[in-house]
Structures are given as C-alpha cells and as structure tokens.
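Dear Dr. L.,

I hope this message finds you well. Following up on our conversation about the binding site, I have prepared a predicted three-dimensional model of the protein together with 6-O-phosphono-beta-D-glucopyranose. For your records, I am including the exact sequence and ligand specification that went into the calculation, followed by the structure tokens. Please feel free to forward this to your student if that is useful.
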Amino acid sequence: MSDNPLAEATVERVAPPAVLVVFGASGDLTSRKLMPAVENLALRRLLPPGFSVVGVARTEMNDTEFCEHVQAAVQKVGGGGDEARHVWDSFASGGFRYVAGDYGDPETFKKLKDVLDELDEQRGTAQNRLIYLATPPDTFPIVVQGLARCGLNRPANENAFVRIVIEKPFGRDGRSAEKLDAIVHEAFEERQVYRIDHYLGKETVQNVLALRFANAIFEPIWNRRYVNHVQITVAESLGVGYRGGFYEKAGALRDIVQNHVMQVLALTLMEPPATFDAGGIRDEKVKALRAVDIMSPEEVAQNVVRAQYRSGWVQGSEVHGYRDEEGVDPHSQTETYVAMRLKVDNWRWAGVPIYVRTGKYLPKRVTEVAMEFNRVPHLPFAMSQAEGLEPDALVLRIQPDEGITLRFGAKVPGQAFRVRSVSMDFFYGAAFLEETPEAYERLLLDALLGDPTLFIRSDEVAQAWRIVDPVLEAFEEGDLPLARYEAGTWGPPESDALLDRDGRRWRKP
Ligand code: BG6
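The resulting structure of the complex is given below.
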C-alpha cells in the first residue's frame, strides 16, 4: 500500500471487519443517507463478510423491526430493489441489531456493549467499531460521555479500532465548538474523531484538488495577478420543508456557510500541499482559512447581506414564505439566505474579493466556484468590436451537471471582426462512464478504512467559526437588517448591491 490515500481511491478498497453503530437510528439522516450508503457499499462488495449495523435510538423496536424499518426507508429513496435482496437477507440473519434506550441512561450503553460483544463472537467483527452520531447536536456530549463510561471509546486491543463520526453542526459558535471538542477529547483521541461534512465526499469537490494540483496550466494563474474575484455559490431550489424546527435554530449561516461553503473555499484558496495525505491537505486548508480576514462589526454591516424568503413561485410551483413553514415562528428573524464579501490576507489572494452566497428557494439547485479573471491590459479592438466580450472565467460546477466551463473570447464568424464570449464545457458524466459514489458512501468507507483526509480536523472547525462568529453575533444582536426575497428569485436586491458597489455582478448560473 502506498502512503497516499487519494491515490488509493482508484483501487477497490474493502473495509475491514467492523460494526457500524448508529446513534439516532430511527432518524431521517440514517434512513435517507446512511443506510442507502451501506446498501450500496454492500452491493459494490466493499463491505467485509460479517459487517454489522447496530442502531441505537429511543423508539422501541426489536432487531427484525429495525431491519425492516431501514429496508423500507431505503426503498423510499430508490434502493432496496431485487438486486439488493441478498444484502438484506444477509443483514437480516443477525447483522442488523437494535438497542432501544435513552442516551442519558447508562443501561443503554451496557446493552450496546453486550450486543457488540455478541457480534464479535457471532460475526467476527474483530472488536472494530465505527460509531456514528446521527443525533441532534445537543445530544453529542451525552452520547460521548455514555460511551466513555462504558469503555466503548477505547479499542479493546492494539489491532482493533474505535472511531467516532460526528455530524455537523459541530457547535453553535466558536465557543461551544471548543467546549464540545474538550468533551470529545476527554473520551477520544483526535485521530479517532471523524467530523463529517458531506460536501467533502462529493466527487466534484475533490475534483477541485485534481484540477488545481494535477495540471500545470491552472496553478500559475490561480492568484491575485490573474484572478479578479471569486464567486462561490451554494444555491438550493428547495425550501426548509419539514425541517422548520431545526432550521429556526440554525439559519443559512450555520447550516451551510460555516461548513460546506468554508470547506469549498478552503480547497479553492489553499496552497498546494506537499503530500496528498490527511495531514498535508488539512494543514493547507487550515492555513487558507486562517488567512481569511475577520470582520469588525462595521465591516459586517458593509460586507454581509442576510435575507429570508417570502412566498413566490419556484420551478412552476407556488410556495409558502418561510414564516408560514411548519415549525417556524411567524415573526422569525432566521436567515434563509446569506451573501458575503470576504477578504483574504495572504500573498496569493490579497486584494481579490471572494464573494460567497447561499440560499433556499432560489431558482435552481447549483453549487459552483467561479474564478473570474482580469481583462487584458490592452484591448486592440474598437469597443464596438468587443461588445459581447466578458472577462474570462473558469467555473467549477460542483452540482448538478458536474463539470468545468471555461469562458473566453472568440471571433464571431463573418466578414466583420467582432469578438464575443463563448464557453468550452467539460461534463463529468460524459467523460467518465462509471457511476460516481454518493458522498456518504465514500465517507463511510473512508472512515471504516481509517482515512481521515476528507474529514474535518478540530483546528479547521475552529478556523471556520472564527470567520463566521462576528457575522453570527451581528445577526443575533439584530445589527444587520433582515432583507426579504421572493422565493424563486436570486435573493434580495441588497445582495446585488453588494457586488454593484465593486462594479461587479453575480453570475446567473
Ligand atoms: C445539509 C443542510 O448539510 O446540506 C441542508 O443541512 C442542505 O439544509 C443540504 O439542504 C444540501 O446538501 P446537498 O448535498 O443537497 O447540496
């Protein structure tokens, strides 16, 4: 085996014998993301014989009911078909266990320990455990402490592993993230902790690294000399749906900016790592985040826009305003849209504004990173010849239509000499015919294999909060007005004004 985990990704990697313990087993994330990922890994034969799942949750269920519940849930999201029958038959014969109990009750953890011991004996799971916290964030400390009290935080011997995967959000702000970290580190060593951000499991997010560091032509222009500004967009065409209760306490800044946007930003701005391993990549990401300027309250007022959707029309359907969503306060001040202008204080990016935006109920679901380049120093054509010429741009489309677009100027065919912008497109799906694994599939397998490269280290979380905290404070103090936008539009006029002031415009993806 080489020391290079990303290089290994091209080789089929089979997980070692292990048990996946899922806290929050009756919840939505387990049904919609984790279990479909387990089914797919099993179908791709990437799980070892004897691989088992133990669900832990408060809902009363027995092993059979749990297995049936999960199978039905997986079917709802398009899995569980005939080709998966053998997978579920095998899980049903002792590989799917369930522990009902309260997370605050030591009995729950004792029961879990007994089940794990049984599985080691019956299914050869070799005392290897991957523990997944798919529970609401306020339960993380209780579960971590419960595990430690029962000795479930430490491997039974030097050949076995115990790893814990912790879902986002990691903390509600910098201070609470630090507290949570201290609690986690009392029970687990950092190398056992896998903080998940599913964006890092997306193939095209990883492709940012491939594009930048596997090619000689992009890196030389990836800096302030050539890049005029960067736009990072995470747009969603859905509203908050049935998650109103959760979203009220989160808002777009905590739900998307602190994690997904900051991760994409770090990969876009980081220096080339010396090695492509977990340490090399995460060190550079932290350095990039550390270079992002922290805003003063006055700067927040100038550089941040927050907004909430009103009713409107999205993709042909009429939709409610946020305040009419289930579980949402009719006077809610929670933002469903954020736009920010960030400044990066390092040699590579000094003076290049980084604009980021995210929102619910925008016209389209699209995540992209767009680098817009400086114009040529001297245009040797008359203005009238270059009316349709926009600045060159390189757009990394993370989803959907995964791929890359390069916009540049070309001569319009004909007798006259006119230039306008054209696009050259690369589509992932057309270039590679193999199916791309879902983000959770990739990340679960990495965690089982002990590869933390695509997970977030403690200092990365802290740096991301450092950027977001002053903005959060301004939101919470009511220092920044909450704008409103019609669902199905690209956000409030204030957001356009943010770029307008710099003589720029948001892209309309
Ligand atoms: C989750 C957020 O982390 O990411 C959701 O909690 C959001 O609010 C989702 O909808 C977006 O993920 P994706 O993979 O659909 O872009």
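In brief: The pocket of 6-O-phosphono-beta-D-glucopyranose is lined by residues 236, 255 (CB under 6 Å).

With kind regards,
A. P.
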